[in-house]
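Our consortium's second objective concerns turning raw sequence data into structural hypotheses that experimental partners can test. To show how far this objective has progressed, the report includes one record in full. It was chosen at random from the queue rather than selected for favorable results. The single chain below, 132 residues long, was entered without modification.
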Amino acid sequence: MTSALVRHVINRVRYLLSITFQCLCDILLSYFPFHLLTDPSHESFILQILSMEYGSDIISSFPNACSPAECVADVSQWPKVVPQDVILSCLNQYYQGTIWTERPVCAVCAQYCADMCHSVNVNGVHILQPHA
């Protein structure tokens, strides 16, 4: 997750922690107008609002996602240093995913080359030349 997104979510959490319970209920009910409130705590409302606004995947990627107040405190430790093996693994996956491989030639193009061109091998490079 980018640091800009982290800062944005943290500012949203700080705002939601600073407003009154009535305002928090109004925000929650604007997302879930017919929602049955099973856990009417401040933190559960904030988590439901954040999940609706950012998606549960983003919210679950925060440390201590069960408590917005702890989440705000823990994010002060961001960004965390990425281990060298993770960096090298990502670079390797990128390299493997971007290797260009020669694709098979379609029948039409292959017939055109067979009729019109001949290949000359110069130092391992195939050069197509038209028939004389």
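The partners drew two points from this record. The CA atoms of residues 29 and 44 lie 13 Å apart. The mean pLDDT is 74. Both points have been shared with the crystallography group to help prioritize constructs.
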